[in-house]
Amino acid sequence: MAYRDIRLIGDPVLRTQCDWITDFNAPVRSLVEDLLETVDADGRAGLAANQIGVSLRAFSWNIEGDIGYVLNPQLVEISQDKDQDGEEGCLSVPGLWYPTRRAWYAKAEGVDLDGQKVVVEGEELMARCIQHELDHLDGHLYLDRLDRKNRAQAMKELRAQGL
């Protein structure tokens, strides 16, 4: 296992749609170990594989002491009638937090290393994490979801940081 460095905004891997995992081999097992170790730090809620430079469809989470992972996740359900508009940040966009509208509830399905079905679901923070990490796997950052005013401010802050 290895604690991996986080790729930052501007790295092309963050804007590339991740590939489906078709071979559950030793490198994929190592990736899962790295995702679990790297997400297991204070202030980390989720981590997509491309955030550590691997363009495969996998993410890990660390929500209220519950740490896990899912491979080949797909969003299968979100609440249509209730949403949340809380502050959101990203390890790949350090230091920026902006109100980001997300569904209140989200459910994703994928598999584990043995090919067994995994269901990841939750409300509030877990729902936000699921949606955020799935966006990463599709090559999007939370900044893409900001309203015009907040996106302009975020981009100004990024330029000031040299990112």
UniProtKB/TrEMBL annotation:
Pfam families: Pep_deformylase
Binding residues for Fe cation: 90, 132, 136
Residues annotated as the enzyme's active site: 133
Coiled-coil portions: none
Cofactor: record remark: Binds 1 Fe(2+) ion.
Necessary cofactors: Fe(2+)
This protein's UniProt keywords: Hydrolase, Iron, Metal-binding, Protein biosynthesis
Annotated EC: 3.5.1.88
SUPFAM superfamilies named in the record: Peptide deformylase
Domain of life the protein comes from: Bacteria
Hydrolase found in the keyword field: yes
Known catalytic reactions: N-terminal N-formyl-L-methionyl-[peptide] + H2O = N-terminal L-methionyl-[peptide] + formate
Task performed by this protein: Removes the formyl group from the N-terminal Met of newly synthesized proteins. Requires at least a dipeptide for an efficient rate of reaction. N-terminal L-methionine is a prerequisite for activity but the enzyme has broad specificity at other positions.
Family: Belongs to the polypeptide deformylase family.
NCBIfam families given in the database record: pept_deformyl, PRK00150.1-3
The protein's name in its UniProt record: Peptide deformylase
Organism: Actinomyces lilanjuaniae
Gene name of the encoded protein: def
